């Protein structure tokens, strides 16, 4: 298997709901494991929390996520955005519609000065997404 880069998202107790939402958006196979599944004694309050999850889609996307581990302070920030780009306008507009629903649109999905259709939103889980629809080549 070749090396690959996967976004890994950390959530504050709602990883299960977030990853199920991303499965609804992108399709694919979602595998999730709770803290209780990985040990005889889960930390107090963590038995049902997500220790690790991975979504793999037919389009070749991989997205991983988990609830914040015990003892780590949850500090959301603006240092991460996930970009989805390509030429299949209907597919990408579908992602945009589902990701932005219930979230906040920072840049509407529309034609930009560089010629592509682009939009940026923060989904209902606080994750920033950028969608870029390029002109078909060839």
Plain-language structure description:
By secondary structure, this protein is α/β, with parallel strands linked by helices. The protein has two domains: 8-67; 81-133, Roll (2,3-Dihydroxybiphenyl 1,2-Dioxygenase, domain 1). Helices cover 17% and strands 36% of the residues. The protein contains two helices and eight strands. It has helices at residues 15-26, 89-100, and strands at residues 8-11, 29-34, 50-56, 62-67, 81-86, 104-111, 117-122, 128-133. The strands form two sheets. A four-stranded mixed sheet has the order 1-4-3-2, with helices on one face. The chain is elongated.
Quick structural gist:
With 138 residues, the protein is an alpha/beta fold. The chain has helices at 15-26, 89-100; strands at 8-11, 29-34, 50-56, 62-67, 81-86, 104-111, 117-122, 128-133. Helix content is 17%, strand content 36%.
Give keywords.
138 residues; alpha/beta; 2,3-Dihydroxybiphenyl 1,2-Dioxygenase, domain 1; 4-stranded mixed sheet
Helix content: 10-25%
- The chain-level mean pLDDT equals 91
Please state the structural category.
alpha/beta
What does the radius of gyration come to?
A: 17 Å
Q: Enumerate the strands of the largest sheet in spatial order, edge to edge or round the barrel.
A: 1-4-3-2
Please indicate the percent range of residues in DSSP E strands (runs of 2 or more). 35-45%
The number of helices is: 2
Provide the low-confidence segments as ranges.
none
Number of strands: 8
Profile the largest sheet: 4 strands, mixed
Q: What is the global morphology?
A: elongated
Regarding quaternary structure, how should these chains be classified?
single chain
What is the CA-CA span between the terminal residues? 30 Å
How many structural domains are formed by the residues? Answer: 2
Please provide the ordered H/E string of secondary-structure elements.
EHEEEEHEEE
């Amino acid at each position: 298997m070749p090396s690959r880069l996967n976004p890994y998202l950390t959530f504050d107790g709602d990883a299960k709901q977030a990853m199920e939402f991303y499965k609804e958006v992108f399709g694919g196979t979602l595998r999730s494991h709770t803290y209780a599944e990985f040990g005889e004694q889960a930390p107090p309050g963590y038995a049902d929390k997500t220790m690790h999850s991975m979504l793999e889609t037919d389009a070749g996307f991989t997205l991983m996520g988990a609830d914040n581990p015990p003892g780590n302070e949850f500090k959301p920030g603006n240092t991460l955005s996930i970009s989805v780009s390509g030429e299949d306008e209907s597919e990408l507009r579908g992602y945009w519609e589902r990701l932005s629903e219930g979230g906040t649109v920072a840049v509407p999905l529309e034609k930009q000065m560089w010629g592509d259709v682009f939009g940026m939103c923060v989904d209902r889980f606080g994750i920033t997404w950028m969608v870029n629809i390029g002109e078909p080549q060839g």
